[in-house]
Amino acid sequence: MAANSRGVRLRELLKSDQLLIIPGGFSPLLARMCELAGFESFFVAGSQTSAFLFGLPDVGIMGLRDMVDHVRHIAARCELPLLVDADTGFGNAVNVHFTVQEYIRAGAAGLHIEDQEAPKKSGTSGGRRCISTAEAVGKYRAAVAARNELDPDFVICARCDLVGAEGGTFEEAVQRCIAYVEQGGADMIWINTCLLYTSDAA
Asked: Do β-strands 188-191 and 82-85 pair in parallel, antiparallel, or remain unpaired?
């Protein structure tokens, strides 16, 4: 497969000294509008896509094929490099390998895979639980291996959802992220810092 120029462009944007603002959305029209408005990249959000396609919250109902086909439509209508939500990679390390290659073929520039248990819950919801660091590292290694087979410029983002999850702390999330880069080979990390407060915590 020829090098994915969108992956190259996304990497260049990420390496720049300038702040990169990536608007998120769910449709080819929104991506095209962002392109015309002068933004340099676009994030295809899983929660918004689930709401748009199914009218359902982000609770793991949407599958790989739903998301990949939707990304293909968006990539065909704009030239922006797309960073795409890939949930948990839609399963274990084997599923992650397949997921990465399908997103590359669909025209994405990169994706993020979160370290939640499957089926996942929205990153803004309570009751989230994460898999072990070792399992997550294995999934990111699988993602990198799949990427390297088709397009070494494709960006792998490891998203850590431990902050706000059951028993998680910010310090532990930082240690996970270090492992995701040093052991898993992820290109970048995303610490989801959505904290949920209930009456019990008041």
From this structure: unpaired
